[in-house]
Amino acid sequence: MTSVFDVAQYILQKRGSITAMKLQKLVYYCQAWSLVWDEEPLFDETIEAWASGPVVRELYDAHRGMFAVTSLLRGTPDNPTIVQKETIDAVLDFYGDRSAQWLSDLTHIEAPWRLAREGFEEGASCANEITIASMSEYYFEIEPTD
Questions:
Q1: To the nearest 5 percent, what fractions of the chain are helix, strand and coil?
Q2: Is the pLDDT of residue 62 over 80?
Q3: Cα separation, 83 vs 92, whole angstroms
Q4: Could you tell me if 56 and 47 are in contact, meaning their C-beta atoms sit under 8 angstroms apart?
Q5: Residue 55, φ and ψ in degrees, nearest 5
Q6: Is the pTM of this model over 0.85?
Q7: Which residues contact 121 (CB under 8 A, 6 or more apart)?
Q8: What span, in angstroms and rounded, lies between the C-alpha atoms of 42 and 80?
Q9: What is the rounded distance in angstroms from the CA atom of residue 59 to the CA atom of residue 22?
Q10: 54-72 average pLDDT score
Q11: Nearest to 24 by CA among 117, 93, 100
Q12: What is the mean pLDDT of the chain?
């Protein structure tokens, strides 16, 4: 199985150095669209509904303290399959030029993050899981648009 670190390394290989926040949002959207287009999760790691948007804690722990991420000590960009790379590439084509803040704002208006944070005040710490089921259901109903 491809790990979130493999996906992150592939993104970094394609895009170069990006902010930690943007990397988190891009791996989130890669997971979301893999559920819709490939009908399976891209990686097994859990995505949590943090105040700043979706975050994979294991990935966060790997880049903690970095504003910009150039590389990680874990993961191999060659591990994703051809189909997975096509999904990641499509996500990068659509979301890759967006700012980290734009991506974060988008996640905040979408149902999976909002549902996972029900009962939490804006800005409050939260580690609730954004479930595969909620992501699959929500993103299956929409197509990315400008």
A1: 50, 10, 40
A2: yes
A3: 14
A4: yes
A5: -140, 135
A6: yes
A7: none
A8: 9
A9: 12
A10: 95
A11: 100
A12: 95
Q: Which amino acid makes up residue 29? A: Y
In this structure, the strands spanning 68-69 and 53-55 are: unpaired
User: To the nearest 10°, the Cα dihedral for 43, 98, 72, 128?
Assistant: -50
Banded pLDDT at 145 (limits 50, 70, 90): low
Answer for the pair 24, 59: CB distance below 8 angstroms, yes or no: yes
At 1 the pLDDT is: 85
CA gap 65, 60 in Å, rounded = 9
Contact 21, 81 (CB under 8 A): no
* Beta carbons within 8 Å of 15's beta carbon, 6+ residues apart: 92, 96
Q: How confident is the model at residue 144 (pLDDT cuts 50, 70, 90)?
A: low
Q: How sure is the predictor about 143, in pLDDT bands with cuts at 50, 70 and 90? A: low
Measured between alpha carbons, how far is 73 from 5 in angstroms, rounded to an integer?
A: 9
C-alpha 8/C-alpha 24 separation (Å) is 8
Q: Which residue's structure tokens are 């400008």?
A: 146
Cα–Cα dist 62/124, whole Å: 23
